[in-house]
User: Fold this.
Amino acid sequence: MKILSITLFSLLALTTHLAASASPESAQTSTTTSSSQLSAALTVKVTELDLFDQKRQRPVKITLWYPAQENCQDAKICLSEQAVLNKALVFSHGAMGAAKGYSWIGKMFAAQGYVTVGINHYGESWVYGPEHINPAAVLQFWERPVDISFVLDVLQSNQLSEPVLSEAPELSKVSVPSTTSNPSATVTTANTPNSLGTVGNSTRIFNQTIAWDQIVAVGHSSGGATILSMAGSKQDFNHAATYCATAAAAEDRSCHYLKFQTAANTKGYNPAQSFVDHRIKRIIALDPALGHATTAESLQAMTIPVLVIGSSQNDFLPYPRHAGYYADTIPAASRLVFSEGEGHFVYLDRCTHQYQAMGVALCVDRPGIDRTQVQQKAGAVMLAFIN
Assistant:
């Protein structure tokens, strides 16, 4: 088990070392893109696609961050010639969130040449509009991994056949934060991504072929539990009930869901169902949830590399029963521990609104915590992990 414990005096040295090891100059040469090519400036573009799973009659909006070129003739998304094609990333957000709430992750990876696909889970995510928000969807965790596998199916086919591409007449360029080791990259974002373009016939999505069977899956909180289920984790909510009845669970906000979870499970959850998707080759779990309900046997059977990043002085999910439990139990797990008061929501983008989750502010960190610095350090470790 590899342990990286963040302390006040080791932060600078660790970040400098990992940023150097993940920089374009020292990155391993891929089969499609050389390290010297990645050192050039990249333009990062953000595009949204509206997909629909006919089998489940369920919409799936995705947000894509990617290195872009201006024009291409035969596809809707024009990837730069410097794009990394031998792997890609998918991202699953936390409960009631959205992929766009973690843009630091998408920008960071895309600035290094990687296509990153954020999945917005219907019923939870605000990107579908307030009329589609259903708090009960938080408990229907089994829909989330199926969303991701469906998206991978579509992207692997590289074909669109419905009106799905969000278009925006105006574009703006902003600087990529120093989270990325390529500070010369720029990101292009759509200012008004709510009008749909029409696609008459089947159209290629990307102008280049990406290895969608070589996926790094990233997720925060419920999203972390989601991607771990795609590597074989299994839940037994009797374990959660036993734990939540103890004094050790007094500060565990996830136990507040338990009384509703039993009823929700009768409406679609099949404990025997497997969500394993062998296209996922590596996992990065940011302060993952559902540790109290996940069986040790299922975690011990995992064989793919897993990076668990967690906050030991957690204000929402106690580290020993969630992130720490995953890191301790998964054989191929390494970990990064933030131990200076960083909370559960430090992995969200910087924000200024006043929303809270069970009394815990989403945008306000404890005194002395710099969210940007935390994300820079986490980002350096994440980049090193996928190379």
About this structure: The domain at 2-386 is CATH 3.40.50.1820 (Rossmann fold). Confidence is low (pLDDT under 50) at residues 1-39, 164-200. The chain has one domain: 2-386. The first helix runs from residue 11 to 22.
